[in-house]
Design a protein that fits this description.
heterodimer, A: Rossmann fold, 6-stranded mixed beta sheet, 4-stranded antiparallel beta sheet, 9 helices, 10 strands, about 35% helix, B: about 240 residues, mainly alpha, about 85% helix
């Protein structure tokens, strides 16, 4: 199967610190791919390369076969319309109500009239279980609700690819399971490709079709949850078992 | 320092390009005009009033020494229109709106709302900076007109009502000595100040880092840098227009 997103030999450094050291990854369409790895290990940086918020020092980023690295900002804008991104902190516009947040991409990028937009917004809010909260401001919502609004906004345009940055961090287990459900439904109902960044091992094994382990600036292991569980790599084993002793250096 | 100037210049030129390129964001633009302009009106009037009053008081005591009290009105009018009207307006709007712009955009930056705009295929400069820049450029001259008027009124109140200068002489000297060019000069300056204070606010907000502390730092720096640039550019423009 042709990968929908492919990163080849990505190098990225911030000052003295080299975060990505020749990273290769290929994401297949219509699947939930989870990228796991330690905090500060470059997972968010990787995600920002996928969507063109950061440019690599070296390497190529292919989205549906097109190399996005040399593209000017204007053409990147077109590429970005294929994506939805759920930010770690939801990144809702706090000057707008919940409804206005979800409607924002629709207002900006579609020629739909107000009643059609209202209908889509209501439907997206219902799908994340937030019907009736549309008139609230983000500051009036709990963390879990904000994330769900963020998800409704991310999928408002029915994007082909939805990226999730730590979707369950900071949530209680039930809310986390709720979000995981939503990720699976995003795949099943919209046929979207989901890329999830996580260090939540339990959630990862619950939702992943394919898992990638990011360590020391590279993908060191990839495969189905079964394959990762049975991996012989000591780094992978230490990470998924959450042990303090092992080859992973704490910097 | 050099990178900072470069970044400000880049932000300014990008914002200007977006002003002539669709989509135009009329709603954002009117919102910013209201925020920068209308809601600064009260504080601008208040400061202009007291400035005009103190100006009349000071010049009266100085001019009385060589019996030139009749010139108090014209002095107040010239000082207000050429210099104090635009400068005081700009400094007050910097404190009110420039700081708020830096804080708002800075908060949006540290909570990833700016990135969210980019990800949703909206250019954040076009969405956030251009409307504010245009609002500053247009509203500062308008505020300055009001400020000039209120300042002269303050001078009149003190000069004529409190210090007993003849009202006819006070006004007559203003008509005689104040020209339209004096007023225009102040308005040109005001437009430049409007661009400076919104641009610096946007710039500091845009490059905010480091959470709540970073937002506080950005806000302070925006006010300080704007104020310095306003006063420095004021001197340069005055010298050039002489």
């Amino acid at each position: 199967m042709q990968p929908i997103i492919e990163l080849k030999n990505i190098h990225k450094r911030f000052g003295e610190h080299e975060v990505l050291k020749g990273l290769d990854i290929a994401i297949r369409p219509g699947m939930v791919s989870v990228i796991i790895g330690g905090s500060g290990g470059g997972k968010s940086v990787l995600l920002k390369h996928v969507i063109g918020l950061l440019k690599p020092d070296e390497g190529q980023v292919f989205v549906e076969g097109q190399d996005t690295v040399p593209l000017p900002e204007r053409e990147l804008t077109e590429i970005r319309k294929k994506f939805g991104l759920l930010f770690q902190g939801a990144a809702l516009f706090d000057s707008m109500t919940v409804e206005e947040n979800v409607a924002f991409p629709l207002v900006e990028h579609t020629g739909l009239n107000a009643s059609e937009i209202g209908r889509i917004v209501a439907q997206k809010l219902a799908s994340v279980g937030l019907s009736g909260h549309g008139a609230k401001l983000p500051s009036e919502l709990s963390g879990g609700m904000r994330k769900r609004v963020g998800l409704a906004r991310a999928v408002a345009l029915d994007p082909k690819i939805v990226l999730f940055d730590e979707p369950t961090s900071g949530l209680d287990p039930v809310m986390g399971a709720n979000i995981n459900d939503l990720i699976l439904r995003t795949r099943d109902e919209f046929g979207a490709t989901c890329v999830v960044i996580s260090h939540d091992i339990r959630a990862t094994f619950a939702i992943a079709d394919e898992i990638f382990m990011l360590y020391d600036g590279r993908i060191i292991a990839s495969g189905t949850p079964e394959e990762i569980k049975n991996s012989a790599d000591p780094v992978v084993q230490q990470f998924i078992q959450g042990k303090a002793e092992g080859p992973i250096r704490i910097s | 320092m050099v990178t900072e100037i470069g970044r400000i210049a880049a932000l300014f030129s990008e914002a200007c390009v977006w002003l002539v390129r669709p989509p135009w964001r009329m709603r954002q633009f009117f919102k910013q005009m209201e925020f920068v302009g209308v809601r600064s009106l009260f504080v601008v009037c208040l400061t202009a009033l007291f400035t005009g009053m103190v100006l009349a008081l000071q010049t009266y005591y100085a001019f009385r020494l060589f019996s030139a009290e009749s010139l108090v009105g014209a002095t107040v009018a010239l000082s207000m229109t050429r210099e104090l009207g635009p400068v005081i307006t700009a400094l007050m709007v910097t404190g009110r709106a420039g700081s708020a712009i830096a804080a708002e955009i800075g908060t949006m930056r540290v909570t990833e709302q700016v990135d969210a705009l980019t990800v949703m295929a909206i250019n954040p400069v076009q969405y956030l900076v251009s409307p504010r820049l245009l609002a500053g450029f247009l509203m500062l001259p308008l505020l300055t007109v009001v400020s000039d008027l209120v300042g002269i009124l303050g001078g009149y109140l003190i000069g004529v009502k409190a210090l007993g200068i003849n009202s006819g002489i006070f006004m007559n000297k203003i008509y005689e000595l104040l020209t339209l060019d004096d007023i225009y000069e102040g308005l040109y300056k005001a437009a430049v100040f409007g661009v400076i204070l919104t641009l610096v606010g946007c710039y500091k907000g845009f490059y905010t880092y480091g959470g709540a502390e970073g937002v506080g730092r950005a806000t302070t720096e925006a006010v300080v840098l704007s104020s310095v640039l306003i006063l420095a550019s004021d001197y340069v423009m005055t010298a050039l227009m002489m």
